[in-house]
Specification:
The chain is of the alpha/beta class. The chain is 47% helix and 11% strand. The chain is globular, with a radius of gyration of 16 Å.
Length: 184
Amino acid sequence: ASDLAVAEAVKAVRSQYPGVPIGVEAYFDEADDIRKYKEAGATEMKINIETWPEARFRKLCPNRDFPATLKALEKAVTVFGWGRVTSNIIVGLGESDSEVGEAIETLSSMGVVPNVRGIRTGPGNRAKLEHVVGHLPSRVSAERLISLGRLHREILEKNNLDTRVFETMCFSCRCCDMVPLVDI
């Protein structure tokens, strides 16, 4: 959907349900477009960085721009507030734990609450992942997710961020991912 269509949908929901929290996860053309969602009535924003570092991002997301995504995340924090913006970091794509830690630290220091998510493969992404990564990624072990969860929690606490304040999207649902400060 276009930015205008998403903003109009948010506005329609807000007019019918003035007290309901609204989270927006949308692609955008310009970082300045983020303000449209807030003005329409969104309360939280998600912009996915997907993977780390930039070289892996360019390989896995060739039609997206890493610096522009970081800029959009910074802009979203200025619009929605510290700790009201989130971004998925998918693990299991060949990254090291130190790279995941660097991603969590970078985003958290900007006021973004990252969501660390183990790779999931299925019919919709299997062939593309196998082609881009060079093999079909394996499920991330529970031990690795727990270890990363502990690191994630430590970094969030250091940056005065809390997953429990989210009212929409992944952190409030708590079904798919380990949620720091809730599960670990």
